[in-house]
Amino acid sequence: MKKFEKLTSAIVPLNIENIDTDQIIPARFLKATTREGFGENLFRDWRYNGDNTLKADFVLNNPAFKGRILVAGKNFGCGSSREHAAWAIQDAGFDVVISSFFADIFKGNALNNGLLPIQVSDEFLAEIFSTVGQDHTAQLDVDLEAQTVTNVVTGSKTDFEINPYKKSCLINGYDDIDFILNQKQLVVEFEQNR
Amino acid sequence: MSKTLVEKIWDAHVVKSEVGFPDILYIDTHLIHEVTSPQAFDGLRKRGLPVFRPQQTVATADHNVPTLNQLQPIKEELSRYQVDMLTKNCAEFGIELYGLGHPFQGIVHVIGPELGITLPGKTMVCGDSHTSTHGAFGAIAFGIGTSQVEQVFATQCLLQQKPKTMKIEVNGELGQGVTAKDIILYIIAKISAAGGTGYFIEYAGSTIEALSMEARMTICNMSIEMGARGGLIAPDQITFDYIKGREFAPAGEEWDKSLAYWKTLYSDADAKFDSVLTFDAADISPMITYGTNPGMGMGIAEHIPSTASQVSSEQASFQKALDYMGIEQDTELVGKPIDYVFIGSCTNSRMEDLREVAEFVKGRQKAENVTVWIVPGSKQIEQQAIAEGLDKIFEAAGFQLREPGCSACLGMNEDKIPAGKYCVSTSNRNFEGRQGPDSRTFLASPLTAAAAAITGRVTDVRTLLNESEHA
Q: How does the average pLDDT of chain B come out, rounded?
């Protein structure tokens, strides 16, 4: 799994609430059997017209916004459990997603792929949207070890929560399978004692 | 110490619990389908690992499959490849597959219960968020991502944080035309599409206890639509009667032993939930959604809320949803012309749903402007419907009974709602483009969907039910 420690980057703002995984990657693009290439269809129906031309007013199509941090409205990633949503965001070049609330399954899927979901307060989120609205190149500074996000323009800084185990997985780039495989004897014993 | 039902089942499956780490939770049954499994099988190959407990894994093809001429090769190349890949992977890793042409094939959450694979007290997972359906039997069942599918393949376990618990009680008798689907759409409208996030929900109360197993599955199915990983209902005599005699259900001595255990599966009277909500069944009317998430629902006779009545930070998203749907705030939906009716999906494609619709449409005709698809949840249901003559009733009404699969719930196969068209759907999600690019979905019960099919408009089913009583 991809490692993550620190990142200072410009951001791509998507100020919409309840973005479901069908918007992130529509079902008709889930037919691939590998993990790569989903970025092309990230937010497909918001990004492209029916004739496959780009929708000029969508933020991902605006060259003024570039960055490795996606910032979105609350309840991001609700709906379907498709991990393709996390793969698509990562494949499109993002390392961090910030929102004021995440759906459970999406959050877990992101963490299992080294894509860092950061939950911040409604106020902190509103400040990010306001900052980037004024300055499209505004940057955020993310420090996983310290569990902080800093709005580089305003200097506002906030802490964020992350499960300590998941944090060490991200920093070291290892995953849950390695963790359980190392304790497989316990699983066998559990089965025998049932 | 007193425990909730979730805690009882969870604790019985913890392989290891360590401070600072998620629990290692043992998984009894792993259900898989063609869309979320191929990358997990690939992961195993890369690690050089087998499936640890293939006999505890069951596969079916449902998301991509056509619902006409299922025994012909799948026309769409990528769909065909994905379904073929499932067949190859199951053969290579020793997993039982109920694929196309098999008498047990169907939607993964329909066949589990139907075959007696879903049982009280089990832990069950699937790379599909509607795995919560199986909770209707008093099981801990939840959807997982593909990395976790690989994890369960490799270890038969998941690293999982113990969830918080919520009890939702519904008490009293349901009114005319009000079904399980209306109960769950009502609850989601009340607590929002995120209101259950972080929780496992136990549904209880006299209304829930009076429901059949199929109705209970409809309720648990949509737990994820309020953000909850799982929802469950304590097993009772209705549960035991449903399970007995099914293909893979325990029998003989095993049955007695299982039953004795199942009867211990309830929340203790003084068990503490992290949250408790209570609703009165009398307040629930036939429901319909008007927006682009399942929390945007209302009683069918009500008016669409005004944008100004929403919290200020949510007004823009709310208005965006109404614009997408092509509807106005403060207006009513009843009378709005529709184009399609879809009766199917893991929410409402079981025998009881089909029988209810057949009884309602018998002697009636669909409106000319409407296309109606009825997609049964499994091959067994399709065959049963034909045996009961429901296919004839549907045919006479102008409804098409098709072959089983997920179909227009998510439009991965050919069954898509065209851009701009309206569909009254018994499925579970009204997200933008869910049923096809730019399609517009009104979620409702099978009865409400059938009523719309007859009139060609969004209809309060109670007006038609009253007509037939007076006829």
A: 97
